[in-house]
Amino acid sequence: MTSEQESTETITEDVSDKSGTAEQENTGLNIGKAVGKIASLMKEKGALSTGDLAELRRISPDQPFTPALWRILLMFDLNESPGWISQEQWERRWATLLMVMAHNIGLHNYRVSFGQALANAGWSELRFVQLMKSNGETLEKHLRRVAQFLAGKNQEADWSDAARLLFTQSGESGEKIRLSISRNYYSALYAQENN
Length: 195
Fold this sequence. Notes:
mainly alpha; single chain; Peroxidase, domain 1; 11 helices; disordered N terminus
């Protein structure tokens, strides 16, 4: 198998993320693996054109769909929504995630949790609380601000945490994801205050 085939293979291996939802487990989607492969694609010189990356950075709630979005979803066989989410929501959430990642090329790092990254970069507690309370288009808008802020600080983050937040916005699983991000944020703040 060539490296190109490996990078475009279907991302449907078993879910190993402890914060994954039952719905995600049923589809076999591993969000963390998908985010890692997309981050690698964006970082690889020449894999996406500068125009594609600019298109992704311009994604907004008013204009979430771009040709670059469709190419990436098709490349990684992520174009069909699983049964637990509508096709439109699926595509919108991927659009938001790809926008966030396009602002932060080369800054995806599984070892730096999303909450820790926000604290390390100086994201205010007030803004953090607003982010954790938001859903739908409001969450998309907050994540755009977060992406631009972290990019401006050159702050690495595990973007699969943000993906889980996007794809699991409600219910018990959504609450667990928000609690995990909050624990990491406040732990990092506490460590800063006590140094």
